[in-house]
Design goal:
Length: 325
Amino acid sequence: MKLGIMSFAHLHAYSYGDVIGKLPGVELVGVADLNQDRGRQAADQLNTRYYPSYEELLDADIDGVIITAANRDHRELTEMAAAAGKHILCEKPIATSLEDAKVMEKVTREAGVKFQMAFPCRYIPAVQRLKSQYDRGELGRILAIRGTNHGCMPGGFFIDPDAAGGGAVIDHTVHLVDLVRWIFQTEFREVYCEMDRRFHDIPTEDCGLLTLEMTNGAFMTLDPSWSRPDCFYTWGDLYMQVVATDMVTEVDMMRQSIERISFDDPNYQWEFWGANSDYYLVKEFVDSFREDREPSITALDGIRALEVALGAYESARTGQPVQIG
């Protein structure tokens, strides 16, 4: 199986490129990026070919592409890849508008290509254990969930409201929304959100607090913020506390790590030694077209997560709860 990567605007592109080389029978044929310096650097780092245009990469002998462009560009690149008959793994969020997201679902379905969303947190062992416990009925009825998704301010397109569709809220809300939908087989019914700019002088919000109601009767609070100091690891926090009738459980999805804090430079180092969820994400993508089946994380999953994030922005704008769906 032969893959290509479209754009290295998103930091996860480097991780995906790295794991492609570790998957049996999978080859990274090349990378395309309109930013030539960034594209050539990525190609050198991943020991592959650089294509100066997306069209040239799509004309190459590849089966699928991973889209890691700015959020705003996901629709355009998806349409290009679908027209070329290439399967698609798309970075989250799926798009910056529901209109774009729905077009992406439609064009890939009509082109007969596989489309998978990049929600790698589903492949974290602690998450899968929680899902298994819930599926076996060990938790009972879910009452409430408290979630956090913290990180450093990433800069780049992430702080361009047009390119990203927002700031920390759209960037960090969708991961936990997807996990809750997948684990507990529920949808979100209503969101109330407050957001602000408290940590950085940037054009977007860097912190927020969401209160959500679900169709299973439970509620959730979520803090999706860029509140970590610049010296900290970019991500490193993804947490849920689940209160149910038969059990209270905590899932700290980045806990399998070593943190070193010192007075030396760098004064903070973070090493993750847990399972590589990106590996299993890309493996699922490749397996879906190897086996000619629907990927386990679909465009609809991307759309549902985006609905919650966009509802949060509408709530923050109006100061009122917003119905979802």
